[in-house]
Specification:
seven-stranded mixed sheet; four-stranded antiparallel sheet; globular
Amino acid sequence: MKIYLDNAATTKVREEVLEKMIHVLKDEYGNPSSLYNIGRKAKSYLDEARDEASKILNCESKEIYFTSGGTESDNWAIKGIAQKYKDKGNHIITSKIEHHAILHTCQYLEKNGFEVTYLDVDKEGKISLEQLEKAIKPSTILVSIMFANNEVGTIQPIKEIGEITKKNNIIFHTDAVQAVGHVPIDVKEMNIDLLSLSGHKIKASKGVGALYVRTGIKIEPLIHGGAQERKRRGGTENVPNIAGLGVALKLARENMEEDMAYVKKLKDFLVNSILEEIPHTTLNGSKENRLSGNANITFDFIEGESILLLLDMKGIYISTGSACASGSLDPSHVLLSMGKLHEEAHGSIRFSVDKENTMEEIKIVIEQLKPIISRLREMSPLFEDYMKNKKGE
């Protein structure tokens, strides 16, 4: 048995995407910068993918620049704008729950003469629009707020943020790695100036992504070299991966409404069953305004890592809300920012459901999870103390 419920971390490559990539790898090996026939053919795959990215975001294809993934796109957006507009100001606004690709980039810039304001979030993981407006200074050049959080799934008020930045003539970037293909996005309506996306979150391959840059926005290149990507991103384009990304974007756009309704049905069943059948559990993040497939749940009195490892032994794959698995003893910065205690953050795990999952799989997960939680609590001194206090001992 193998049940994969960690689709926020990465997704399985779609057959249609794989077929396109193999075809390009085998038969369309030209360099897209070359002027002869097979070079022009390779370039046509870039054009197709650029067109698909523009359709899912409602922008112009010339505003799409291909990258190696979300981390590069985030780095490029933050550093590129900071460098290009440093004569205008040195202040950047972001939030405390951003992906580390944003947070570490901002910390790097702080060491190089820039000032960064990190906005708080409420218990659901949403920023305050009022706090955002108060944080704006004459020196503010960029606001970067993620579209949807990778850990708890909360969707930010992106359109309202865009209205504030537009009113104040400030550039607005959003890390939409978790959102593209999963929620409707209109960069024009939402006043988004830059947007990051990644292929492997939407059933394309790892190592490919894109950055949307609104026409008129100046940005310093992150990677210097040749004249590729209209002189903004040096290096021969990864044509097979980009071609696959185009297919993934097309399929995600065409099936988004149907897929997300199905995924939400599975996720709601999972969440409701856990909260009803396993005591001392809490759903983290917004109850309504969240990604369809994301469920981040705190299991009181136990470690999330222990749950992860025991589920792994059953062939069920999820993610911990704690950073322990990556070699850090620190709990999730997202959950701590939302007001969770350290022990609550350590006891949280994330399920992220995909359209390839089935209701039968979800029911199996619930049945396997219940005895695991009971077993871990029987071993937990925290739970033992709780029961003693409850009995008045």
